[in-house]
Specification:
Pfam families: tRNA-synt_1b. It comes from Regulus satrapa. This is tryptophan--tRNA ligase. Its EC number is 6.1.1.2. By secondary structure, the chain is mostly helical. The chain has two domains: about 30 residues; about 100 residues, 3-Layer(aba) Sandwich (Rossmann fold), CATH 3.40.50. It is built from six helices and two strands; from the N terminus they run H-H-H-H-H-E-H-E. It has a two-stranded parallel sheet. Strand 1, helix 6 and strand 2 form a beta-alpha-beta unit. The longest helix has 18 residues. It is globular. The mean pLDDT is about 90.
C-alpha cells in the first residue's frame, strides 16, 4: 500500500522467492507464482469491493493504526487492502487459511464477503475457516 521504487520492488520479489525456497517449499510439489501477474486477483477484488461497505472497512483496527502512521489521511489502497486479501483467499476457493491473531478480523471480513456473495448470487465460494497459529 506504500509506493516503492521499481528496482526495490523487483529485488523484494526475488528475495521473497528465495526465502520461500529456503524454507523448503518444493516447486515440484507446489505452484509458485507471482500473484501480481494474475489479473483475476485485482478483478475479483473490484467485484468484492462493490459488495463491501466502507463503514465496515473503517472499523478495522489495522486501518486505524496504519492510517495514524500516514498523518491521519490513509490511502484508498490501505483502506481496501482487506478486500484484496479476501479476493486472494476466495479466488482459490480456500477452505482453511493460516492466520495470526492480528489477521483474524480480516479473515472474518473474507467470511462475511463470501456469505454475502453466496446469498446474492448462489453458492459459489466456500466460507474459509481460520487455522490459528501461536507462532
Amino acid at each position: 500500500t506504500m509506493p516503492k521504487e521499481p528496482a526495490v520492488l523487483r529485488q523484494n520479489i526475488l528475495d521473497t522467492t528465495a526465502a520461500i525456497l529456503a524454507c523448503g517449499i518444493d516447486p515440484k510439489k507446489c505452484f509458485l507464482f507471482r500473484q501480481s501477474l494474475v489479473p483475476e486477483h485485482a478483478e475479483l477484488a473490484w467485484i468484492l469491493g462493490c459488495l463491501t461497505n466502507v463503514p465496515r472497512l473503517l472499523r478495522l483496527p489495522q486501518w486505524k493504526m496504519k492510517r495514524a502512521g500516514q498523518n491521519s489521511e490513509g490511502t484508498v489502497g490501505l483502506l481496501t487492502y482487506p478486500v484484496l486479501q479476501a479476493a486472494d483467499i476466495l479466488l482459490y476457493k480456500s477452505t482453511r487459511v493460516p492466520v495470526g491473531e492480528d489477521q483474524v478480523l480480516h479473515l472474518e471480513l473474507a467470511q462475511d464477503i463470501a456469505q454475502h456473495f453466496n446469498k446474492k448470487y448462489g453458492e459459489f465460494f466456500p466460507v474459509p475457516k481460520a487455522i490459528l497459529s501461536e507462532l
